[in-house]
Write a structure and sequence with these properties.
about 775 residues; alpha/beta; Chitobiase, domain 2; TIM Barrel; Immunoglobulin-like; 4 domains; eight-stranded parallel beta barrel; seven-stranded mixed beta sheet; 34 strands; about 25% strand; disordered N terminus
């Protein structure tokens, strides 16, 4: 146990960097604790803890005592003097469990006066959380690991009464797409415990890897845990294994390792919910045992790319259920928690439609269709799990095809709708809407972040998450067990990347899960973020600084003929510096004080300065040209991605690599045609048009672009055309202007045409689906 103590909460004893004075330190009434307590009162003065202070535990888990001792020893260099009894002598820390005075096993009361500290938990977990709160209040002069010659800890006098809002405060980790070591799983649990989360949702199986040892079926780890190494290629561009190619990438957890991790988590009051995916997302399992599929295989474990998800467990074969019962039996022997997650999402039923056994099952069970067969599948698995005194939980697709069995719970990821439906029907719900809780999405502008799976989920949006939908009635609220964040790892291959994507957004989620709704306040949370980042740094976590990233807001002003630019950050930086010539900003660059106006083309680069360091800059391109602010008519106007309508096509604001940045107009499956009115006859010698290509989002360059000019808007003369090479799978997101130059022509009207490729190519996961054209600026020179 001792080896773990120096690795956990090392920074929890830090209040802030050495440059932060005690006067500046967050006070109790300012809720320096994260997540914010339900009730806190600041007292007068401080309590000083020295090596003469006694530690008096009463009826608490010895691990909690050892944990606190380890934190003090690691940070201050001395051990607290342990003593028995309930004495009230000067300089003592008392830790007790008393359910009669503190209601709720996870609730705690923390009282600090000038002589002593008293932590009372309603249960063991409450006592543990009280210790964590205490550690967040401690003020040290030295940094952790560098005790002062005269070590002591100071704690502001206060009284805190606290309890969690929700029973289920979870965080998910996908170890199928990338395998993470036992050591990092411990670290992950430490991070959850630091934020007072109590559920670790361990996504152990999926198409790209099976990660749990099952004694009865050794091929699951001998074959299913390994895939060919394609780590040098983009996740969506990984061809399957060639004949004879060795599978070398992957790994799995032995049952002994899992038992140790379960014990480790339990010490920190974290329950592990294992996930075994079914009926789909099962290719790693079926590559190991193809007899349980509809087609019989053979299969290989895919090295990446998750579409299409067509391979599925055969629901018409009783041996499939015998296999899954055996697997789940061993899983339940390893994980003592109440819930077993069975997945249930994104089940393509095409193979079931073709499978004679599945069709026979539909008939004999009196089911209406394949959706009913999925419901049958879920009910049968739930029935088996219930024989062991457990309950299933699954993604919201398990609602499809019929009623859920009693006791089944739903994890709502496709928005709130699945959770609302389940709660109304009397089922328990864990809310995980991807728009707020999928921490695998970018937390800053895509151009400034490491590659991720797409999407944009900044810290402020995470903090805005409310787990209880407004449409639920009061009597239905109790079915919302709580909420959970998810970390899918297609683009997260290392522990440092996982930490980067997790922190500090995990703190924002934790506050939504723990703190009373009426106590949550974004401005207050923002004041606590720097302190959190210091704690993460001292712990050695690779936390992101994306919330300090500059947001460049540019707006065209047609009256003045300029572009107004403003700069901001999610959380306050010391300053913002910027350049307009494309050069990298430094601490000596122009200091931003107020919005400014540009009247010539510019490449704006702006960066936050935090504690003397210039962070990664944001970039925005402003292009002034002769067609700027001219009127445009579009033959087939955009209806979904409109970017503000036709005026955005001539506003000089250049789109980024994010298709939903508000500057791109999107056209699905149709050609693009637009005519620009230059207002008067003028000399024209060059035309251009900008497009985005983002293959993963079904967005492609056009196959051909043509340009024409006219004096009257009726008779157009072609002036150039460009045939554009077809995209290849390995190309990442890119934006490009396609242009042509020609001898000067007099014209008032200019026509732009772009021919779509029509449908996604055969090699694309969405083969046959409509391809998108994304257009930004129509340029005249």
């Amino acid at each position: 146990m001792q080896e773990h103590l120096t690795a956990i909460f090392l920074a929890s004893l830090l209040i802030a960097p050495s440059s932060l004075t005690a006067r500046e330190a967050p006070s109790v009434d300012g809720f320096g604790i994260t997540p914010r307590p339900a009730h806190a009162e600041r007292g007068t003065g401080e309590c000083t803890i020295t090596q003469r202070t006694s530690l008096r535990p009463r009826g608490v888990d010895p691990f909690i005592v050892a944990f606190l001792q380890g934190r003090v020893r690691a940070s201050a260099g001395f051990a607290l003097r342990e003593a028995g009894g309930t004495g009230r002598e000067r300089r003592s820390i008392r830790i007790a469990v008393d359910s009669s005075s503190v209601r709720g096993a996870e609730s705690y009361r923390l009282e600090v006066d000038t002589d002593r500290v008293m932590i009372t938990g309603g249960g063991e977990a409450g006592a543990f959380y009280g210790v964590q709160a205490l550690l967040q209040l401690v003020s040290l002069s030295p940094l952790a690991g560098r005790p002062s010659p005269h070590p002591h800890l100071t704690i502001p006098c206060c009284r805190i009464e606290d309890a969690p809002r929700f029973r289920w405060r979870g965080m998910h980790l996908d170890v199928s797409r990338h395998f993470f070591s036992v050591g990092f799983i411990r670290t992950y649990i430490d991070m959850l415990a630091m934020h007072r989360l109590n559920v670790f949702h361990w996504h152990l199986t999926d198409d790209q890897g099976w990660r749990i040892e099952i004694k009865k079926y050794p091929e699951l780890t001998r074959t299913g845990a390994w895939r060919v190494d394609r780590e040098g290629r983009d996740w969506s561009d990984r061809p399957p294994a060639a004949t004879g190619e060795e599978a070398t990438y992957g790994g799995y957890y032995t049952q002994e390792e899992i038992r140790e991790i379960v014990r480790y988590a339990a010490e920190r009051y974290v329950t592990i919910v294992p996930e075994i995916e079914m009926p789909a997302h099962a290719l790693a399992a079926l590559a190991s045992y193809p007899a349980y599929s509809c087609s019989g295989g053979p299969f290989t474990v895919p090295p990446g790319s998750y579409w299409p998800i067509s391979t599925i467990f055969c629901a018409g074969n009783d041996s499939t259920f015998a296999f899954l019962d055996d697997v789940l039996s061993e899983v339940m022997d390893l994980f003592p928690g109440r819930y077993i997650h069975i997945g249930g999402d994104e089940a393509d039923k095409g193979e079931w439609r073709k499978c004679p056994k599945c069709q026979t099952r539909i008939g004999t069970e009196g089911l209406t269709d394949e959706s009913g067969l999925q419901s049958y599948f879920i009910r049968r698995i739930a029935s088996f799990v219930s024989t062991r005194g457990r309950r299933i939980i699954g993604w919201d697709e398990i609602l499809e095809g019929g009623g859920l069995p009693p006791g089944a719970a739903v994890m709502s990821w496709r928005g709130e709708e699945g959770g609302i439906e389940a709660a109304v029907k009397g089922h328990d719900v864990v809310m995980t809407p991807g728009a707020y809780t999928y921490l695998s999405e970018n937390q800053g502008p895509e151009a400034t972040e490491p590659q991720a799976g797409g999407g944009y989920l900044p810290l402020s949006k995470v903090y805005a998450f409310e787990p209880v939908p407004d449409t639920l009635k009061r009597e239905e609220w109790d079915h919302v067990l709580g909420a959970e964040g998810c970390l899918w790892t297609e683009y997260i291959a290392t522990p440092s990347r996982a930490e980067y994507m997790l922190l500090p957004r995990l703190a924002a989620l934790a506050e939504a899960f723990w703190s009373p709704r009426e106590k949550r306040n974004w401005d207050d949370f923002v004041r606590r973020v720097p302190r959190l980042l210091e704690r993460y740094d001292a712990e050695g976590y690779a936390a992101a600084r994306s919330a300090y990233g500059v947001r460049i807001s540019s707006g065209s002003d047609r009256q003045s003929g300029g572009v107004r630019v403003s700069l901001s950050t999610e959380i306050p930086a010391d300053s913002i510096v910027y350049t307009t010539d494309g050069s990298e900003p430094t601490a000596l660059s122009r200091l931003y004080a107020a919005p400014f106006t540009l009247r010539t083309s510019a490449s704006v680069k702006a960066a936050a300065v935090v504690r003397g360091a210039v962070l990664t800059p944001a970039v925005d391109t402003i292009l002034f040209h002769r067609g700027m602010f001219k009127n445009v008519s579009v033959t087939y106007p955009a209806t979904r991605y409109t970017a503000g309508g036709p005026p955005s096509l001539t506003d000089g604001l250049i789109g980024s690599l994010e298709h939903d940045d508000g500057r791109w107009q999107g056209y699905e499956g149709v050609d693009f045609e637009a005519v620009m009115d230059l207002a008067e006859t003028t000399d024209v010698s060059g035309l251009g048009i900008r497009f985005l290509e983002k293959i993963s989002s079904w967005i492609f360059f056009p196959s051909r672009v043509t340009f024409a000019v006219s004096a009257d808007g009726n008779d157009f003369a072609p002036v150039g055309s460009i045939d554009i090479p077809a995209a290849v799978a390995s190309e990442g997101p890119r934006a490009r202007e396609w242009d042509c130059a020609f001898p000067v022509r007099k014209a008032r009207y200019v026509r732009f045409n772009a021919r779509t490729i029509g449908t996604c190519p055969a090699w694309h996961p969405g083969a046959g689906g409509k391809a998108w054209l994304f257009v930004d600026e129509l340029i005249v020179r």
